[in-house]
Specification:
It is built from ten helices and no strands. By secondary structure, it is an all-alpha fold.
């Protein structure tokens, strides 16, 4: 299955239409949204970004949020690989780092990520870990969501 997925990603990256078009086609949207359960490394995530990063909106953005935060939660041992990948591509770096503290991340997953950032941060990822720590769920709300925007909480009904 991984070989088929990688072949699909590579073919999408080589498509001349992909280079020219910035609009996400229905096919690309379907493929991008279907990929996220199979992205198990930062190299694969980077390939998916190159092929479908322009589709990063709505439900597809949520799928990318899911894939990235699952990697942070379950494969913290790959953080150095993530740092290597984001160091070579500033667009990919923005794509990944904008997932820090996203509202779609389940709070239990976010807690694991924060604990990892606080306790087992590789030396080459200190700035990233600090970004995670700075968005620490100390701001947890009783309904298990993160307090993202205090101004929203203060709005009059």
């Amino acid at each position: 299955m991984h070989k088929v997925l990688l072949l699909l990603l590579l073919l999408s990256c080589m498509s001349p239409q992909h280079v020219i078009a910035k609009e996400c086609t229905n096919y690309e949207a379907y493929t991008a949204e279907s990929l996220y359960p199979y992205l198990s490394s930062w190299k694969e995530m980077h390939m998916a970004y190159r092929a479908y990063g322009h589709c990063d909106d709505g439900s597809i953005a949520e799928a990318f949020d899911e894939a990235i935060t699952v990697l942070w939660e379950k494969r913290w041992d790959l953080i150095t690989e993530m740092m290597n990948e984001i160091s070579t591509d500033s667009g990919f770096k923005r794509f990944v780092l904008k997932r820090v503290g996203t509202e779609t991340t389940p709070i239990n997953r976010w807690r694991v990520i924060v604990i990892n950032a606080k306790t087992i941060c590789p030396s080459d990822a200190q700035a990233f870990c600090q970004q995670i720590i700075d968005s620490d769920p100390e701001n947890l709300q009783p309904n298990n969501t993160l307090k993202r925007d205090a101004a929203k909480d203060r709005r009059a009904p």
